[in-house]
Amino acid sequence: MIAVEDLRVTFYTPAATVAALGGVSFRVARGDTCAVIGPSGCGKSTLLYVLAGLLRNFQGRVVVAGEAVKPGRRRTALILQDYGLLPWKNVFANAGLGLELRGVPRAEREARVTRILRELGLYELRRLFPGQLSGGQRQRVAIARALALDPDLLLMDEPFSSLDALTREALQDNLLEIWHRTGCTIVLVTHSIEEAAFLGRQVVVLSPRPGRVVATHLNPGAGKSSWRQEPEFHCVCSFLRQQLAGGVADAPDL
Amino acid sequence: MRRTFETGAAVAALLLLWELLAVVLDLEALPPPGTAFAVFGRDFLGPLGWHLLVSTYRVLAGIALAVLTAVPLGFILGRNPAADRLAAPLIYLVYPVPKIVLLPVLIPLLGIGDASKVLLITLILFFQILLPVRDGARYVPAALVDSVVSLGANTRALYRHVIWPAVLPEMLTALRVASGTAIAVLFFAETISSQEGLGYYIFDALSSWAYPEMYAGIIAMGLLGFLIYTVLDWLERRLCTWKYL
Ligand SMILES: Nc1ncnc2c1ncn2[C@@H]1O[C@H](COP(=O)(O)OP(=O)(O)OP(=O)(O)O)[C@@H](O)[C@H]1O
Ligand SMILES: [Mg+2]
């Protein structure tokens, strides 16, 4: 689904030249999940912007669904940490915005949004504005808006990092359900080791800026809700922790 | 309902103060409110009503023209740093110039009728709206824009769904603040060069020592200001529901 080869991104600003990504390569198979983890400022968000087609100024090769990445790919959905929802639109209008922008007729749009809001347990909130929602509800509306587009690639930038632990775990389980049901490919950026180990069937560890791949760890246990309780899950967490700290560790035997 | 009550109480307090002052000072130049309202009632369906209508039209036309020109330009400058760098010095130079000084230029060009007054009001409001719209458009969070672009928005959709709603509250606030200035300037312009409008009516009464008429004109002017504030207030509540949760 995704092939990234030697991706480099450098920002040129009057104040400084910042190398954000210094040669990143990885692949994600169709229908798989991949978590990208790395220290703050290592270029995780930048990587997602490239995958979403929003950032065009990069070197290297980035292929999404068999084609060089380009803006406006219809089945790519991007979910950003904050600000994703428009404060002046209520839940229903926010969730339907992508469909509206793509010119889906109103009747079909409303039917689809209604179905998805019901599935995510948000239908009762449809008339509220984002400012009236909790952080977790807001993030679920952002997910609903992405799902309304029937994406085959879901890109998420630290989607749950501002939530409390309980809400976060509930939403992580939610996301797994969605993944099982839709079979979409998920690339999720996070700085939480547990989140990466729980959600990413493959975990890409990036170095401090400029981000490079320190390790690509296959994590086939991820993808079921009970994984969190298994001892291997904790092994993966400590392995990732060591990788992030720059230590060298052998991959745990699973 | 509550607001109606509060407005009523404010008006009553103002009238009471006026009545008190009129009694205490006992001046010909300060008739009691009853006298002024009697003239207001008498003239409202006659000349005064007409002058009120003329002034209202001038203010509303000025507001409409200013919004129609300042908003698109504010969008362009706010979203294109290069254009803004070119235009900003010009704007900052012209902005503080009191626009009333342009009246002697506008009158020979446009005559003493509506056009020169409307344009004067437009000029004043234009800058008052332009800057908040430009700044609002500039500081719309980049992540908000990015996420809507990633949903498939083109430039036009971006303005419609993101930039415009983001600047609307600030624009309405600016408009409310500026419309007070606009009415004051309109009054001034109508006193020096007009045969119509509340400014003319009030000044005409003043120069013929017809004080009750003058106060009737002032009442009409207060009414005009109140009307405009009320409409802008209503618009803000109506269009920016999300701000008042
Ligand atoms: N538009 C930009 N112009 C200049 N520099 C930028 C820009 N966007 C990002 N950068 C720089 O690129 C680097 C990587 O930024 P990025 O946002 O991708 O990091 P991140 O890994 O997502 O960090 P965090 O975990 O804090 O979100 C940072 O040093 C940042 O300052
Ligand atoms: Mg980031």
Question: How does this structure look, described?
Answer:
The complex is a heterodimer of chains A (254) and B (245). With 254 residues, chain A is an alpha/beta fold. Chain A folds into 2 domains: 1-75 and 152-254, P-loop containing nucleotide triphosphate hydrolases (Rossmann fold, 3-Layer(aba) Sandwich), CATH 3.40.50.300; 83-150, no CATH class. Chain A has helices at residues 44-52, 91-95, 97-101, 106-119, 135-147, 165-182, 193-199, 231-244, and strands spanning 2-12, 17-28, 33-37, 59-64, 67-68, 76-79, 153-157, 185-190, 202-206, 213-218. In chain A, helix 7 (193-199) crosses helix 8. Chain B is an all-alpha fold and 245 residues long. Chain B has a single domain (46-244), classed as MetI-like fold. Chain B is built from 10 helices and no strands. Chain B has helices at 2-25, 33-44, 47-79, 81-94, 103-110, 114-138, 142-150, 155-192, 198-207, 211-239. In chain B, helix 3 (47-79) packs antiparallel against helix 8 (155-192). The radius of gyration of chain B is 22 Å and the shape is globular. The model of chain B has no long low-confidence stretch (mean pLDDT 91). The A-B interface holds A 49, 52-54, 71-72, 74, 76-84, 86-89, 97-98, 101-102, 129, 131-132, 145, 149 and B 141, 143-144, 146-153, 157, 161-162, 165-166, 240-242, 245. Bound molecules: adenosine-5'-triphosphate and magnesium ion.
Task: Sum this structure up briefly.
The complex is a heterodimer of chains A (254) and B (245). Chain A has helices spanning 44-52, 91-95, 97-101, 106-119, 135-147, 165-182, 193-199, 231-244, and strands at residues 2-12, 17-28, 33-37, 59-64, 67-68, 76-79, 153-157, 185-190, 202-206, 213-218.
